[in-house]
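Exercise 7 asks you to align residues with tokens for two separate proteins.
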Amino acid sequence: MAKRSDYLTWDEYFMGVALLSSFRSKDPNTQVGACIVNEHNKIMSVGYNGFPAGCSDDEFPWEREGEPYDTKYPYVCHAELNAILNNAGASLAGCRIYVALFPCNECAKAIIQSGIKEVVYLSDKYADTPMTRASKRMFHAAGVRLRKLSPRRESIVIPLDESKV
């Protein structure tokens, strides 16, 4: 009997973990997850966008418009930063990070400072914004590799029904 040929590639697997992590986000508009992996294909950390620990997601605002103080933007911690901060203390030098949405300039700084050397992403929908352009400028200057993932499949289905296991 031959082995299965439809198994996930490492890139599909780790992007799947990042996307699965995004399901933990309580943001009503944008859910992003991140997965950091070392050179041995071991997961170092995961994260998703949400408020910092101790800041109730029932009390802080989720609005996207209005006075800045009354919107989510000054409070939300992005998935990439959460993944970096959630790491158990091991070095992230040389790691790669998988994220569905290309990192903003603030996350780019944290990625560079943590020593991550590759960003693998699905979407760059904000490519023309000043913040994303600044991210790319910093990544290029710091020698961080950028790679848009072109998966072999459209989706990964994970059944949670015990009869499917």
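Second protein for Exercise 7:
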Amino acid sequence: MGTKYRHEWKHVINAADRIAIRQRLRAVARPDPHTVDGKYMIRSLYFDDLNDTALREKIDGVNLREKFRIRYYNGDTSRIHLEKKCKTNGLCSKFSAALTRGEAQSIADGRIEWMRDDGRPLVKELYVKMRNRGLKPKTIVDYTREPFIFGPGNVRVTIDYDIRTGMNGTDFLNPDCITVPAGDAAIILEVKWDEYLPDIIRDAVDLKGRRAEAFSKYAACRIYG
């Protein structure tokens, strides 16, 4: 099966936008079933190389780019995933592999030799890039997400806020690790879909002529180093 690409656009919105869009989405879409009270907390550990390639390519708007992260939700370290997100000419794809807590901690600590012969292609790919390109954990990114789903078009709309950074810390499995607000309190509206975006969702997320703009939570969280 070939790589599945999805359309994606992001927009920085304000508090009034968030209230209005949330109300419109509640009327036409449904919350992701994994939420608690309509939201969940996301913690990610992002990787980059010695030259900060992922950061620089994002800032420069390079058409072909990728980034690795390890992620879990609502503080539940029994379900952790390694993810690679790729962007090709504005289309996105994501690859994922489940990790145990011990495996995630080993990667964060730089103990990676076990990955060389691992049977999961994504784990082995990360190992090769950590060995050959100097890829390593760079920063923790925390935020709250309100996700909505809509069946036709396989649409997913998310509102992300309270973005926090672990600065240079990588102790992401420690619930008490310190994070701080990542600069200005941005609120991010993100819309993803497959072949088409239904008009009912397009209308629900309409921002009255304002254009979508690039935003990277990872880049925002690297402001401290």
